[in-house]
Amino acid sequence: MGQFVKVADVSEIEENQPYCVQAEGHTICLVNLGGEMKAVADTCSHADASLSDGEVDGDEIICPLHYASFCLRTGEAKQPPADDDIRVYNVRVIDGAVEIEI
Ligand code: FES
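Above: inputs. Below: predicted complex with FE2/S2 (inorganic) cluster.
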């Protein structure tokens, strides 16, 4: 089991807007999905694009470069050209702080 690292205050994170956060050398895309915090690897599995520059559509994040999409709940690649899933991180909110398990 990893350790939880604070990456943001809940009050800073707008709903359905991706944020790029850093934790212990990991670059992570953080999304408040209708009140549920979700965190996935920020780098697209297709090429070197930052998913936090993309858009949220339903429970998916769409890559800004070639428009692959990934499920924010499971990390599953849902639309080509990406074939590989991306990592999902556990997130918790404690006393207004968003923490990600590394
Ligand atoms: S870099 Fe994300 S779809 Fe190509």
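The chain is about 0% helix and 45% strand.
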